[in-house]
Amino acid sequence: MSDQQPAATPEEPKINKKQAEKEARIAARLAEEKARAEEKAALLAKYSDVFGNAELLQSTGYNTKEYTKVPQLSAALADKTVTVRARVSTTRKKGKLAFMVIRDENSSVQAMAAVDEARPKEMIDYIGQIPCESIVDVEAKVTVVDQPITSTTHSDIELQIQKIHCISESQRTLPFTLEDASRREDEEGAKVNSDTRLNCRWLDLRTPASNAIFRMQSRVCQHFRQYLLDNDFFEIHTPKIISAASEGGSNVFKLQYFNRDAFLAQSPQLYKQMVLQGDLPRVFEVAPVFRAENSNTHRHLTEFVGLDVELRINEHYYEVLDLAEGLFNYMFEKLATHTKELEDIRAQYPFEPLVWKITEEKIKELGIGIISENKQPTDQYEARVHNLESRMLRLNYPHCIELLNTVLEEKLAPTDDINTTNEKLLGKLVRERYGVDFFISDRFPSTVRPFYTMPCKDDTRFTNSYDMFIRGEEISSGAQRIHVPEMLLERAKSLQVDLTPCKDYVDSFRLGAWPHGGFGVGMERVVMLYLGLSNVRLVSMFPRDPQRVTP
Ligand code: ATP
Ligand code: MG
User: Fold this and answer.
1) Most buried residue, 215, 216, 350, 544, by CB count within 10 Å?
2) How far is the CA of 333 from the centre of ligand 1 (A)?
């Protein structure tokens, strides 16, 4: 195309005039807009101390202000001026007033601003446009209200905003609303599906139930640790990159380790046993466990947190069970004290409180054996408790089978495996007969236990092993372990497990070995089942399963 203009025509001066007028109008409008913008900027600058977007926080000040947390606000602070950093739940403009609800840590408060000498109407407009979920700093006077405010947790006070600055603005459109994500399954209204929530976990965690679930999860680990530390245990850290699969089987993740293969640990099993042979008498670990389980169930993850325990025993694996019962009793008792969290969880996911102790009446009525009274293993009883104080139920495996056979059409043999469906059914039958949601089953058939499990002396079809259940689902497995190398090798051979890659482990028992036992607990399972939740993804912060490795 040519750059040359076409030759001028007689019409041109007219057109030029029109054009010039148009351009002038545009210029005038632009000038007007610029003046308005400058005026606005000048106003914002004038009031920048009162409202507006805060300067990027870059660690230039230090303790220049005293912040009050939303939960710390109270009528006792009436007429005092406080500075609060919180998240915006809602904003609303009404004439010369602006209202907002701000929140933090499960606590919310109403804040309002009014036009006055120190605060122009632009401040009301500014508040009205702050996107929900943004973070703001509010300097405000605390006032006591006449009418209780029902929409906030602080119902008796309100904040009269003097200054407000946005610290971090949220995107205006959210992937989902917290209201939708907080709805009970049986409630009317939109729900948010699990994947959408998990894809934006940082938003999902702001719902009261999710937030409370992870507070409870933290407590589970805290109480687990505390009880064990109080009972002479040492916390250990075993490697997660290992040269041989710790539990055998196919569900191991292989990884490239420089020029050879390595594996991610399926449990700290072999290591915690080796540590015991190094004369640490009682050990525990809280650490990730990796299992390449290509099954999509409500209770399996490919990475979960293992709560592992291993200790010396003097005579009997009951010593491990006594410890386990003490531990779980402590954890359950402590968990029940976190009432606010439990309330928040129950509001979205209703559940019955866990019953873990059988009543003394039932013990008498059913003739349940009391182990500590006769100081003998009391396997002849269908059911046992350690003593009348602990009252946590132990059933031997053949008795679990008998119980199942009372309702199953296709009867099970005493050494048959109990599948997941029957496990749930067993939980229901135990609940009906014994009135508890927690029980331990012991003497599992040797065919369903790993090679390192000590066989029963009286009947080698069975082993000195046990599982623990909450609401009919497994939370823990454990056993007395074989501490004799030859016996280990023999057991492995008969189960067709190749122990060549685990030579170090076998050798660790050749230099004098302490008899021992232990158990491994799935942390997410405990949280899920204590809270009666239906899916392990609800209690894993960033769950990993065959379909999900992000976020
Ligand atoms: P399950 O029969 O439920 O698959 P398991 O018997 O294979 O479990 P163990 O090897 O006994 O599991 O592991 C100890 C504990 O770790 C289990 O009792 C359970 O609480 C937890 N656990 C095992 N596998 C998983 C998993 N994939 N996701 C979450 N927790 C798990
Ligand atoms: Mg198990």
Assistant:
1) 216
2) 24
Q: Is 477 a catalytic residue?
A: yes
Given 119, 154, 291, 537, the catalytic residue: 291
What does the pLDDT look like over 448-459, one tens digit per residue? 999 999 999 999
User: Is-catalytic flag, 461?
Assistant: no
Domain ranges, residue 191 = 178-206
Looking at the structure, do residues 136 and 258 belong to the same domain, yes or no?
Answer: no
Segment holding 421, helix H or strand E: helix 420-434
Same domain, 349 and 453: yes
Domain assignment present for residue 407? The answer is: no
Which of 217, 266, 471, 474 is the best mutation target for the ligand 1 pocket, counting ligand atoms within 8 Å of the beta carbon and taking the most? 474
Task: Give residues (CB < 6 A) around ligand 1.
Answer: 291, 293, 300-301, 304, 474-477, 520-522, 524-525, 536
- In tens, the pLDDT along 491-530 reads 999 999 999 999 999 999 999 999 999 999 999 999 999 9
Does residue 78 sit in the same domain as residue 196? no
CA of 519 to the centre of ligand 2 (A): 9
Ligand 2 geometric centre to CA of 468 (Å): 9
Q: Which of 299, 443, 481, 491 is labelled catalytic?
A: 299
Q: Known catalytic residue: 293?
A: yes
Model-wide pTM > 0.85 = yes
User: From atom 16 of ligand 1, which residue's Cα is the shortest distance away?
Assistant: 522
For residues 506 and 447, the answer to whether their CB atoms sit within 8 Å is no
CA of 16 to the centre of ligand 1 (A): 84
Residue that the structure tokens 């006449």 belong to: 146
In a domain, 301, yes or no: yes
pLDDT digits (tens, 9 = 90+) for 30-87: 999 999 999 888 988 999 999 999 999 999 999 999 999 999 999 999 999 999 999 9
300 included as an active-site residue = yes
Helices (H), 99-252: 121-129, 178-181, 194-199, 201-204, 208-230
124 and 263 housed in the same domain: no
Domain end, chosen from 154, 189, 206, is at: 206
Which of 108, 138, 168 delimits the end of a domain? 168
525 catalytic? Reply is: yes
Asked whether residue 329 is domain-assigned, the answer is yes
* Same-domain pairing of 343 and 474: yes
Is the confidence at residue 220, as pLDDT, over 70?
A: yes
User: Is residue 129 located within the same domain as residue 272?
Assistant: no
* Cα(278)–Cα(256) distance, integer angstroms: 30
Q: Give the number of domains in the chain.
A: 3
Nearest to 436 by CA among 385, 382, 373, 369: 385
Query: Which residues does 354 contact at the CB level (< 8 Å), separation at least 6?
Result: 332, 437, 438, 470, 471, 530, 532
| CA of 54 relative to ligand 1 center, distance in Å | 49
Tokens of 353: 């409180």
Residue 365, domain member (yes or no): no
Q: Are residues 254 and 198 part of one domain?
A: no
Q: Which residue CA neighbors atom 27 of ligand 1 most closely?
A: 300
Q: 212 with 182: CB under 8 angstroms?
A: no
Say how far apart CA 247 and CA 244 lie, in whole Å.
Answer: 9
